[in-house]
Amino acid sequence: MAQRMVSCPHCKRPLPEHASFCPYCAQSVRPRRPIKPPSHLWGKALRWGLGVCLALAAVAAVVVPRLPKTYDAYGEVLYTDADGTYQLLLSAVSDRFTPMPEIREKAELDMEYRVPSRLFINHVGTGVNAGPMFMQKVAFISTEFIQSETSPSPMVCSQPEEMSFSPEAARVSLLDYTGRSDPAELVWTLRMKNRDIIRLRQKIQLQPIRTYDYYPEDFPMETTQQLQDLVDRLSEEIPLPDIVNLHLPPVTYEGGLFIQSRPFNLYGSTDQQGHRTTFTDTVAIHAQNEPITYFYDLDFVGNGENIGLSSPSRLWAENCTFSNWKTGVMGYGSAWVNVIGCRFSGNQVGFHFNSTGSSVSHTMFNDNHFEENTTAVLLENVPTDVIMNFQNSRFRGNRVDIDNRCGQPLDLTQAIFE
Questions:
Q1: pLDDT in tens, 138-180
Q2: What does the pLDDT look like over 67-86, one tens digit per residue?
Q3: N or C terminus of the chain: which is more exposed, having fewer CB within 10 Å?
């Protein structure tokens, strides 16, 4: 088969159809296509992206550990920084090692209450109290309640501060509420100088207490024996923590009254001639480690001997008078005793505190009148070193106004000395 011939595009001489080179003029007879080198764009992009990722990872390794952290828990948080690990915990009691994520209290509906929320800080491992050192790392600390806006009696908390009655606590917040307060949540917030945030939470739950009121119209209580019999019977019939209020007639009780097993609240009264409920012998309380025993509007009139009102447990006397006793009111044992708006006159010792307990009911001893006593106030031993405030209390004609033998801190700035 004859080969088809074509002409050289340069010299026009005949060439075979598939020739690529003319032997006559030494020219290429086929057009050259430029050869493109392989593209490296994707490779460059890949290398660039990898470099960026490595740079970001390096930055993250340095920056992320330094970003502020938030800790949020009930009762207890473990916090670690360059100096070690710390246990931060909340408690209502003085135990600095046991977290208390919830405070459960029994409350009478119309009574006011105060409990502390204490922040303890321990160094993990050694167990030492790290509060003073750790607080140097804190820029700001606060407390607040989260609670229902419709609560009939909203809870209130004080801002955290150091308090002498709880020296091992880094800070203490005082919680005020009534038996009508709805459940609430207390939130402690610590903003650290390194911008970390620590939140510790505590739930506050209240259990209502039943209240029983007894009146002379319904129960015999005209004599000391009748009153003692009623106290003894109710001590067996009504369990704690229910409250028993005895509303006494305006009579004079001869002979002593002994209250044990459980507290009773005694309310005095006044007849049309102005005679108030009066005790002429010792009223002794022995219901130790129980709720507060309250005395209102009562007169205690002695014969220069004995003690008018004595208690080794928590006692509160308000608007009462104590006259002509060896000692008007005495708190001993582990008692915390408050006298508010009372009058002490003609006693060898008006108010005697000699207790080595560890709890405080209230710091106020306001609006009392101490007149013509040998010693108005004798402080032999007082639980804790909390400051006792004698605001608006008046001292007149006493041989010794205050014999502070134990060196108890006192606030006398608003007391009146005549």
A1: 999 999 999 999 999 999 999 999 999 999 999 999 999 999 9
A2: 799 999 999 999 999 899 99
A3: N
Q: What are phi and psi of 252, to 5 degrees?
A: -100, 120
Alpha-carbon distance of 239 to 86, in angstroms, equals 43
Which residues face 113 on adjacent strands? 177
In this structure, the strands spanning 184-192 and 171-178 are unpaired
Token pair listed for 208: 């209502």
Q: Which residues contact 158 (CB under 8 A, 6 or more apart)?
A: 143, 173, 174
Query: Tokens for 3?
Result: 């080969």
Closest CA to 101 of 190, 185, 196: 185
Nearest-angstrom CA–CA distance, 283 and 322? 12
State residue 359 phi and psi, 5-degree precision. Answer: -125, 155
In this structure, which CATH number among 2.60.40, 2.40.70, 1.20.120, 1.10.3680 belongs to the domain 66-209?
A: 2.60.40
| Residue spans per domain, the chain | 66-209, 211-417
Distance CA 140, CA 241 (A): 39
DSSP letter (8 states) at residue 257: E
CA atoms of 174 and 393, how far apart (whole Å) = 25
Residue type, 270: T
Q: Quick one: DSSP state of residue 206?
A: E
DSSP structure string for 265-321: EEE--B-TT-PBPEE-S-EEE--TTSSPEEEES-EEE--SSSEEEEESS-EEEES-E
Distance CA(317)–CA(96), nearest Å, equals 33
Q: How far apart are CA 135 and CA 299, in angstroms?
A: 50
CB of 248 closer than 8 Å to CB of 257: no
Q: What is the DSSP letter of 64?
A: G
The closest of 246, 220, 250 to 235, measured between CA atoms, is 246
Task: Lowest mean pLDDT of 47-61, 74-88, 239-253, 263-277, name the range.
Answer: 47-61
- Written as one string, the DSSP assignment of 281-293 is S-EEE--TTSSPE
